[in-house]
Amino acid sequence: MNKDLARIPLLFILLCAMQVFVFNHCQLFGCATPLFYVYFLVTMRKGMAKWAIMVLAFVMGIILDTFANTPGVTAASMTASGLMQPYLLDLFITRENDEEYIPSSDTLGLKPFVNYTIVSVAAYSIIFFTLEMLSWPNLLKWIECVVGSTLLTVLLILAVDRLTTRK
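Above: the chain's sequence. Below: its structure in token form.
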């Protein structure tokens, strides 16, 4: 818990700054945008209060909405993903790993962490692009954005995870 007092605010500020100043200006093939700030939710400590996760997710979303000119889209998507995060994490935890820890390839194992990351980022991307486009005539564009952004974000999260693991 004491480590979270330093880790969470630093990660929050770092991810917001990286998204605003770097990743918001990157777009591959006109549809794949790195949504790296989802890393904040993916690495929320198991056992953290659900209300705290949702409040932090909402605040991060509002901050990113302010800089990206997407009124409420990121905040709504982050809040919904924050609501799902503890339940998604429980799907990938084995019964003997029931202690409190920060999800990573070290703590979950590589395959469960990859699967957890893919499901979490895909769920976020589906919510985000559905709210952003709010139009089904562009179904192909929606699919391209969801798949492209999910793949790009998952690759970034896994790369950072491998760089920060202690093995």
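Residues 49 and 126 are 25 Å apart (CA to CA).
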